Automatic annotation (TrEMBL):
Protein name (database record): ABC-type xenobiotic transporter
PROSITE patterns given in the database record: ABC_TRANSPORTER_1, ABC_TRANSPORTER_2
Species per Swiss-Prot/TrEMBL record: Streptomyces gilvosporeus
One CC-aspect GO term: plasma membrane
Stretches with biased composition (Basic and acidic residues): 328-338
Molecular function terms, GO-annotated: ABC-type xenobiotic transporter activity; ATP binding; ATP hydrolysis activity
Main location: membrane
Domain named ABC transporter: residues: 12-242
Residues annotated as transmembrane: none
Length: 338
């Protein structure tokens, strides 16, 4: 089900965010609005500027231009208040290898000036929640990648932030650990926390994010729900299968589609993958009294979207939505009968 459009109060509001290193433009005027209690995923190829965005919004580095408000506070003028409202789990684990899991969490509690008893309580609770209790007294150096990622996120949660940045939270995790991390992330949002995550895993964005933005060459080239993004690129179609050639031919004539396979008795009807198109096809079959044996809706997946939207050299004056040519080029690579 598509997420509702962002109408509630926003946790993160960004306009015109820009950043260059030397003459390399990394962010070229980024606008974002992320409602409270939602998961936002920033996608983009290596070097697109995802970590840079996270670093700017978490007050670690300054932007060259643009404004941002987080939890109602101005990023620059109220940086202290912003810092108090956010938690950041960086791309590279902040865990201290020489300390045990427990000691890492205590350290975090000390840095946050939590009273000692409160710090101990939070640490014990987080160790339990992340299933790290057995490893509590072991040095982090002996942890697997997945345990380290979990401890890293647990450290971010010591301070009960309202907005959490997760820079590639599941990179290098096995499928089971990834799922555990997803469950943890979903649990956080259920508590009303807002999550800003970056990822290379399109399935991750598809599974978790209410809204997704794709960053490429300094600009957001697309923004929307996973379903909206998939509909942005061509390739959606409805496929009907019939029991005999007569029904197939009647349907092909009725829908004016030449994309049929006489052997498999299937007919493809292009569409946007949305419900109105599906309804029109069903109504058409009914009206023409044609029996179809099976109907499947095919939409491009986020991989198609990613490959289509990113890494293409931009032609001068090209608008971000004139994607047809690139999409067609990429589609030849894919099996469009999926
Ligand atoms: N401190 C820095 N000095 C100079 N260039 C930098 C610096 N930090 C980042 N860059 C450049 O900015 C660009 C964006 O980097 P960034 O780390 O934000 O990308 P990313 O989207 O997080 O990539 P990845 O998926 O590999 O993590 C890259 O070209 C990088 O080389
Ligand atoms: Mg990065």
């Amino acid at each position: 089900m598509p997420a509702p459009p962002p109408t509630g109060s926003s946790a993160i509001d960004v306009t015109g965010l820009s950043k260059s290193y030397g003459d390399k433009v990394v962010l070229d005027g980024i606008d974002l609005r992320i409602p409270e209690g939602t998961i936002f995923a920033l996608l983009g190829p290596n070097g697109a500027g995802k970590t840079t965005t996270v670093q700017i919004l978490s007050t670690l580095i300054p932007a060259d231009a643009g404004q941002a408000r987080l939890a109602g506070h101005d990023l620059v003028r109220e940086a202290e208040a912003v810092r108090a409202a956010i938690g950041v789990t960086g791309q590279f684990a902040a865990v201290d290898n020489l300390l045990t899991a427990e000691e890492n969490l205590f350290l975090m509690a000390d840095l946050l000036h939590l009273p000692r008893r409160e710090g101990r309580r939070r640490a014990a609770e987080l160790l339990r929640r992340f299933e790290l209790t057995d490893a509590a007294k072991k040095p982090a150096a002996t942890f697997s990648g997945g345990m380290r990622r979990k401890l890293d996120l647990a450290m971010t949660l010591v301070g009960t932030p309202r907005i959490i940045f997760l820079d590639e939270p599941t990179t290098g995790l096995d499928p089971r650990s990834r799922r555990t991390m997803w469950e943890i992330i979903r649990g956080l949002v259920a508590d009303g926390v807002t999550l800003f995550l970056t990822t290379q895993y399109l399935e991750e964005a598809d599974q978790l994010a209410d809204r997704i933005a794709v960053l490429d060459q300094g600009k957001l080239v697309a923004e929307g729900t996973a379903e909206e993004l998939k509909r942005l690129i061509p390739g959606s179609h409805i496929r009907l299968r019939f029991t005999d050639a007569h029904a197939l031919e009647s349907a092909a004539a009725f829908f004016g589609s030449t994309a049929y396979d006489a052997e498999a008795l299937t007919l493809q009807i292009p569409g946007d993958g949305g419900i109105p198109g599906l309804r029109a096809v069903l109504d058409g079959l009914e009206r023409a009294s044609i029996e179809a044996e099976a109907l499947t809706v095919h939409t491009p997946d986020l991989d198609d979207v990613f490959l289509t939207l990113t890494g293409q050299p931009k032609r001068p004056g090209e608008s971000p939505n004139s994607l047809e040519d690139n999409a067609q080029m990429d589609k030849t690579r894919k099996d469009n009968t999926r």
